[in-house]
Design brief:
Elements (H helix, E strand, L loop, with lengths): L6 E3 L5 H12 L18 H13 L3 H8 L4 E6 L2 E8 L7 E6 L12 H6 L12 E6 L17 H15 L4 E5 L2 H12 L4 E6 L19 H17 L1 H8 L1 H10 L1 H14 L13 H14 L2 H12 L11 E9 L9 H5 L2 E8 L7 H4 L1 H12 L9
Parallel strand pairs: 4-5, 4-6, 6-7, 7-8, 8-9
Antiparallel strand pairs: 1-2, 2-3, 3-5
Helix pairs in contact: 5-6, 8-12, 9-10, 9-12, 10-11
């Protein structure tokens, strides 16, 4: 429920907070590392020293803040939490409302390059008839949305907040798009309000998604069996962060909230490991891009609250009932360097899958890594569905 007025919002970090960060970076206490192990055992200490030195001496938060404030920001109280969101109108004859939802360790900043491709397609080589009105909320506990102080803020609960936000904006029909947590939140919203969702576009299949396998279900295909095994192996080799954040987020949150270098190490490892960068994170993200994301978590003190979403969402997994399907038309864009992706038949068991695109490059952070490819796939998917919004 909306409990107050929507208000414009400006990003403005105090000089006191900026000065405190500078002092902490100056006093970083460095650990040693086993020689010649690089990134094998976690974040490279050598690379992190280089990144922190850039943060200390060359990174300009004020310039990033000015760039961020080019977008129209708002906050609105919903069920006692102020929810931050971007609301960017489209340029075209009938822009379709589209909610873009970010993941972890991301934020609304993931969509900076994608937004104009969707709101102003005519200015970027596309058709103005494909324009969207883009809404980019910040998940509670991320960025400039309030940090929940009560348990229960899961993906399913966030989906309810998004529906309330769309009601507030006057949108009866709309599209949904997301990766990582954004895929789970968007799926929950489509599950809750199927008649209102024109289409659901995902660049990640939610990790907790399980189709309802009943007595009449087809047996798992070899590809599905292989996927479940690869997912199990990935969890053993790469999933320590997930297990910690699902079980004891507070312990790590205390440490990372107190150390900017530690926070940078936690986040940059994922930017490198989950992107299509061939081991060189700066093939995909500049130091300034990396540090803008890290600084957002630092200044808003949201690393701990962002981690709590793992614990809360594990308590409400996306387990479908027997023969249940997510009803709205669904598209999945598969990027090759994503975490283990299920085969098409696994997705078709639980989604009304209408489009399946295997991309030639890109990883987990698709909106940042491959904004043009992602934008074109979104436009193409929604093109035949647009008439639905008028019904």
């Amino acid at each position: 429920m909306i409990t107050g007025k929507r208000e414009p919002f400006t990003v403005q970090i105090s000089q006191t907070a900026i000065d405190d960060l500078a002092r902490r970076l100056d006093r970083t206490r460095w650990t040693d590392a086993v020689e010649e192990t690089g990134w094998e055992r976690g974040t490279s200490v050598d690379y992190l020293r280089e990144l922190v030195e850039h943060w200390r001496t060359r990174f300009d938060w004020a310039a990033q803040e000015r760039r961020i404030n080019r977008w129209p920001h708002f906050r609105v109280p919903i069920d006692g939490l102020r929810i931050h969101f971007l609301h960017v109108p489209g340029t075209g004859p009938a822009p379709l409302p589209l909610v873009l939802t970010h993941g972890w360790p991301g934020s609304f900043l993931e969509f900076e390059e994608l937004i104009p491709l969707l709101t102003e397609p005519g200015a970027h080589g596309g058709d103005p008839r494909d324009a969207f009105e883009v809404i980019v909320p910040s998940i509670p506990g991320y960025g400039f949305s309030d940090r929940p102080r009560q348990p229960g803020m899961s993906n399913a609960r966030v989906a309810d907040l998004w529906i309330a936000l769309l009601d507030h904006l006057g949108h009866r029909r709309f599209g949904l798009q997301g990766g990582d947590w954004g895929a789970g939140i968007s799926t929950w919203a489509a599950r809750r309000e199927p008649s209102r969702v024109v289409g659901l576009h995902l660049n990640y299949v939610p990790g907790s998604y399980r189709p309802g396998l009943g007595p009449t279900s087809l047996p798992l295909s070899p590809a599905e069996e292989a996927f479940l095994e690869s997912k199990r192996r990935w969890g053993e080799e790469e999933g320590a962060y997930q297990h910690l954040q699902t079980t004891r987020p507070q312990t790590a949150g205390i440490a990372l909230n107190d150390s900017p270098a530690g926070l940078a190490a936690w986040i940059v490892e994922k930017l490198r490991g989950w992107s299509d960068c061939a081991g060189d994170v700066e093939r995909r993200f500049s130091k300034d891009q990396i540090l803008t994301h890290v600084a957002l978590y630092w200044f808003t003190e949201t690393i701990h609250s962002s981690m709590r979403l793992y614990l809360e969402s594990a308590r409400t997994p996306l387990q479908l009932g027997a023969d249940e399907r997510i009803q709205p038309p669904t598209a999945v864009a598969v990027f090759p360097r994503e975490a283990p992706s299920p085969p098409r038949e696994w997705v078709e068991r639980g989604y009304n899958l209408q489009r399946w695109t295997e991309m030639p490059s890109g990883g987990h952070f698709a909106a940042m890594e491959e904004p043009h490819r992602l934008a074109e796939d979104i436009r193409t998917f929604f093109r035949p569905l647009r008439d639905e919004v008028r019904r």
